[in-house]
Amino acid sequence: MVDARGQSCPIPVGMTRRVLEKEKPARLEVLVDAQVAVENVTRCARSLGYQVTVEAQGADFKLTLTK
């Protein structure tokens, strides 16, 4: 899991990209707290071949990335 809450873009994207490129997980959950981070992480994940689902959790968002 990547917990990028409290981080401004592009930090959540960088955190997520490092895990995806290094570990190549089949599934990864990413927590963010800004809509712009949802959009940017989604774009990054899709460019690396992942499908993305987004779930609002109060003021936060949980993105589930799957290969």
What does this structure look like?
It is a single chain. By secondary structure, this protein is an alpha+beta fold. The protein is 39% helix and 33% strand. The protein has a 4-stranded mixed beta sheet with strand order 1-2-4-3, with helices on one face. It is globular and about 30 Å long. It starts with a strand and ends with a strand. The mean pLDDT is 97.
**Overall geometric form:** globular
Q: Beta fraction of the residues?
A: 25-35%
Strand order of the largest sheet: 1-2-4-3
Helix-strand topology string? EHEHEE
Figure out the total of helices.
2
What is the end-to-end distance?
15 Å
Q: Averaged pLDDT, please?
A: 97
Total strands:
4
Could you give a short account of the major beta sheet? 4 strands, mixed
User: Structural class, please?
Assistant: alpha+beta
Estimated helix fraction: 25-40%
Low-confidence stretches: none
Radius of gyration: 10 Å
Question: In summary, what is this structure?
Answer:
By secondary structure, the protein is of the alpha+beta class. The chain has helices at about 10-25, 35-45; strands at about 1-5, 25-30, 50-55, 60-65. Helices cover about 40% and strands about 35% of the residues.
Write a concise keyword list for the protein shown above.
67 residues; alpha+beta; 4-stranded mixed beta sheet; 39% helix; globular
Topology at a glance:
Blueprint: E1 2-3, H1 11-23, E2 27-32, H2 35-47, E3 51-57, E4 60-66
Parallel strand pairs: 1-2
Antiparallel strand pairs: 2-4, 3-4
Helix pairs in contact: 1-2
